[in-house]
Amino acid sequence: MTLIQLSYLITIAETGSLNKAAEQLYVSQPSLTNAVKELGVTLLYRSGKGVTLTNDGVEFLQYAKEIYRQYENLMRKYGKGGSYKKKFGVSTQHYSFAVKAFVDMAQEYDMSKYEFAIKETKTREVISDVNTLKSEIGVLYLSDFNRKAMEKLLNNAHLEFHPLVACRAYVYLWRGHPLAGETSIRFEQLAHYPCLAFDQGDNSSFYDAEEILSTREYAQVIKANDRATMLNLMVGLNGYTLCSGIICEELNGSDYVAVPFQDDGTDSESVMEIGYITRKNLVLSKMGEKYIEAMRRYLAAT
Questions:
Q1: How big is the chain by its Cα radius of gyration, in Å?
Q2: CA separation for the pair 48, 55 (Å, rounded)
């Protein structure tokens, strides 16, 4: 069964005549008849009034039209002169530097010719998106606490982690926060303020947390789904979050500060190794290479 045969049958059904269909398709009537017979099912009934479909023909035509419509859509997009646009996607934990790098990369291209996408999302979705190639690159972090569990997840998803930068934990809060002027902040000083964390979903574990030191006991915890909401909670409730300290003021604004978190000096769990993930043995696209260059360039300048 070929697409040409499907096209022949559709045209015969639309014209109701073998002669008219042959003229419209620029083929001989015998060639048209033989092509339909080769399908192996009696689809047409010929009478003095023309050609009609048998019961099998009516059902067959429904499938044929659907298949041929999909073929035409495919050709309109991917055929010569089609509307196909090269795609590039990134999935990331909530890092403003990752968004900034994406902006810098995208500005190098005529975006009318490309289809770009960036998604700030849950840790497991970052892994899933890169595994299924919805995104070419994912951005997340490893620490001594989550490394073994995360590496197992990445290996099972046929992904590999590429480190970009290692950094100690910072307390991220609003400039008007009572602790914003401190040179460093101890864990005990945070007890009276709500800890803000990105929601990882109902089936998440401590290992999925975007925030460092997720296993500590916090008196108050509020979860949010997006960065804008978290920033609003910092202002409205004097909330805070523990992060890498790599903050892009161009995107987040200058109303927020990152103050070093003061641990006991031996807590290796307060060190974040931020990097990107890709499918194993994947050859990066030009957009992917430029995106990684943009991240490295931004991180080197901070």
A1: 29
A2: 19
Question: 97, 246 in Cβ contact below 8 A?
Answer: yes
What is the rounded CA–CA span in Å between residue 260 and residue 171?
6
Which ranges of the chain have pLDDT less than 50? none
Alpha-helical runs (H) found in the chain:
3-15, 18-25, 29-37, 55-78, 96-106, 123-131, 147-156, 227-237, 249-252, 286-301
**DSSP string spanning 8-72?**
HHHHHHHHT-HHHHHHHHTS-HHHHHHHHHTTSS--EEEETTEEEE-HHHHHHHHHHHHHHHHHH
Phi, psi values for residue 170, rounded to 5° = -125, 155
How many other CB atoms sit within 10 Å of the CB of residue 76? 12
Q: How far is CA 151 from the centre of its chain?
A: 20
Residue pointed to by tokens 């059902």: 59
| CA distances, 200 to each of 203, 285, 301 (Å) | 8, 30, 31
Residue 179 phi/psi, 5-degree rounding, is -100, 0
Q: How far apart are CA 205 and CA 201, in angstroms?
A: 9
Residue 80 DSSP symbol: T
Q: How far, in Å, CA of 33 to CA of 162, rounded?
A: 60
